[in-house]
Specification:
Layout (H helix, E strand, L loop, with lengths): L1 H9 L1 H7 L2 H15 L5 E5 L5 E4 L1 H7 L3 H5 L12 H9 L7 E9 L5 E12 L5 E9 L1 H24 L3 E6 L4 E4 L3 H5 L3 H4 L10 H17 L3 E9 L5 E12 L5 E10 L1 H50 L6 H31 L8 E4 H18 L3 E6 L6 E4 L1 H17 L5 E8 H8 L14 E9 L20 H6 L6 H11 L4 E6 L3 E12 L31 E3 L1
Parallel strand pairs: 12-14, 12-18
Antiparallel strand pairs: 1-2, 1-5, 3-4, 4-5, 6-7, 6-10, 8-9, 9-10, 11-13, 13-17, 14-15, 15-17, 16-17
Helix pairs in contact: 1-2, 11-12, 12-17, 13-14, 14-17
């Protein structure tokens, strides 16, 4: 009987000719859908359990070849204790009660035994005789594992929603809420059921809804995730709440957009803090601007009389009619006015730096002439202290460059002035070297400029002295405003602003000012900057104006010793 029934199931077209109309309907309604689903666990067997057909999935899962299964009774693969149950169910089948469900332990080819659940359906001929049973099986162990994993995932999701401070939501393509987590009550004051069925725009002020609507339409059209979209909602109590929304698209099996799933975060407090901080910054900037304007005005008002005092004091020093005591008084006036002028200049420069009002003003200039000016400026002062002042300019240093001459000059004046002030014996050296020459000497390209926006010529400036040096604990502080070392306080000169201003200027030019020093062994200040090399004809013909060009008639010659200056 099994052989007779197997052929019709293998060849449905022949079977349809041998079975009358009712049989064809039964056959087609049962077998055709299964024939198109080869991944399911499907078997067919006769009332005496002889297998007539097995799906490919059965062969793969059980580990048997098709011919091995077909040659055996289905009972052969069922655990012995479970066989009587199947036999009794088959015997009880009728056209009115054609189906039953069983759980049986099945023996796999690798020796393992597993519980499988089977949905069995009897097929009857027109004479109401049972001719075959078709069974669809599933691995309940795998299903239970899937269910357990799904349950665990759902519990994890629910836990995250409960502990999260964010409100989780789902909307359809019309922005209608289809899900709202309980956290919406904490953020907007509504219970989840009060939100469902409403549009997100219903919870916004009219102006905000008009602003967000086109944004939402663009998001829907793009079908892309979105993040950190700030929007304003109305709390149930009436006040406004600033939300930060993020979401991902929800797609069905066909890839059609069903809506969006995401979360809202209350950032009202954060925005208020940012607004307060912004206001504080604006107030501070306004205060800085007021301070800068005040200092600029005051410096102008103070400089005018101080310049007059300083100028007349310099003229009085040339007079021969003053007594030695009066001459000393005039010198004190000159030194004090000079100190006040420098103090005013430094304070004004510092205020500009703090207000970010300092900008570069590059120009073409003669670097060699600048060094000559500095040599002439400090040579006499060094000679008065019996110091050797050295200027060492490398042969590869370009003469004509494009940079901010005034700031380079001011930094070097400050460094040389400090070096001479804190050196009692020995020498002070200003050294200028091309960075590529240093790199070649050291066999390293690390010193060369690497910024593509600054392709110019790198120069290193060093001011080195044999003075009193700086204690190690003071090295990190000397660049702070109004900070002086103990030696500076002992000398009683300076305001503690020069190095702070100098560092700011060097950083503005793209470099950095550093110091190497040991107490009692001198100091070396160093900075690197990048300049552009220009042609000599691009230099403007500028004449340096001197404060005095010659002594007046009948004035005695100076008895000051010849300055000891060396220019390399």
């Amino acid at each position: 009987m099994a052989q007779q029934l197997q052929e019709p199931f293998d060849r449905p077209s022949i079977a349809s000719q041998e079975i009358d109309g009712q049989g064809v309907d039964v056959f087609c309604s049962v077998t055709d859908p299964i024939a198109t689903a080869p991944s399911e666990w499907v078997i067919r067997f006769t009332p005496d359990a002889a297998l007539t057909w097995v799906s490919e999935a059965i062969c793969c899962q059980l580990g048997y070849r098709r011919e091995v299964l077909i040659d055996h009774s289905w009972l052969h693969f069922i655990y012995p204790d479970d066989r009587p149950t199947l036999i009794s169910h088959i015997a009880a089948l009728t056209p009115e009660q054609p189906g039953f469900v069983t759980k049986q332990r099945i023996r796999f080819a690798d020796g393992q035994v597993r519980w499988l659940e089977w949905s069995n359906h009897g097929i009857f001929d027109p004479q109401r005789q049972l001719i075959e049973i078709q069974a669809v099986g599933c691995d309940r162990v795998v299903d239970q594992r899937i269910e357990a994993a799904l349950k665990q995932s759902q519990e994890r999701f629910c836990t995250l929603i409960e502990v999260s401070s964010d409100w989780v939501w789902e909307v359809d393509v019309n922005a209608i809420y289809t899900y709202a987590s309980p956290k919406v009550a904490d953020i907007l004051g509504y219970q989840p059921e009060e939100v469902l069925g409403k549009s997100c725009f219903d919870l916004m002020p009219l102006e905000e809804a008009e602003r967000i609507a086109p944004v939402f339409r663009a998001i829907i059209a793009a079908r892309q995730p979105f993040r950190y979209l700030e929007n304003i909602a109305i709390h149930k109590a009436g006040h406004l709440v600033v939300l930060e929304s993020s979401g991902v698209p929800i797609l069905d099996d066909a890839g059609e957009l069903q809506g969006y799933r995401g979360l809202d975060r209350d950032i009202t407090a954060r925005n208020q803090n940012e607004a307060v901080s912004q206001r504080a910054r604006e107030v501070a900037e306004a205060a800085n601007q007021v301070k800068t304007n005040f200092l600029a005005n005051m410096s102008h008002e103070l400089r005018s009389p101080l310049n007059a005092i300083h100028g007349f004091a310099q003229l009085l020093t040339l007079s021969q009619s003053l007594s030695p005591a009066h001459q000393e008084y005039v010198n004190i006036i000159s030194r004090s006015s000079d100190y006040l002028l420098n103090l005013i200049t430094n304070i004004l420069d510092l205020s500009k730096i703090e207000a970010n009002c300092v900008t570069l003003e590059p120009s073409n200039f003669d670097l060699y002439r600048l060094l000559d000016d500095l040599k002439a400026m400090f040579c006499l002062r060094a000679s008065e202290k019996h110091l050797e002042l050295r200027f060492d300019c490398g042969g590869e240093v370009p003469q004509y460059v494009y940079a901010d001459e005034l700031k380079v000059r001011q930094v070097l004046i400050n460094l040389l002035s400090n070096a001479i002030k804190f050196t009692q014996q020995g020498n002070v050296t200003l050294r200028v070297t091309a960075l590529h020459a240093i790199a070649q000497a050291q066999g390293s390209a690390d010193l060369l400029p690497t910024n593509p926006e600054q392709p110019g010529h790198g120069l290193r400036f060093e001011v080195e002295d044999t003075g009193i040096g700086i204690a190690s604990e003071s090295l990190d502080k000397i660049f702070n405003s109004f900070v002086q070392t103990s030696a500076g306080r002992d000398v009683g000169e300076g305001t503690g602003l020069g190095l702070s201003i100098s560092r700011a200027y060097i950083e503005l030019m793209g470099g950095s000012l550093t110091v190497h020093s040991h107490l009692g062994q001198g100091s070396k200040f160093q900075f690197d900057i990048v300049v552009d090399v220009v042609k000599p004809e691009e230099i403007r013909d500028r004449q340096i104006q001197s404060a005095a060009t010659r002594l007046a008639a009948q004035q005695p010659q100076s008895t000051t010793p010849t300055p000891s200056c060396i220019y390399g």
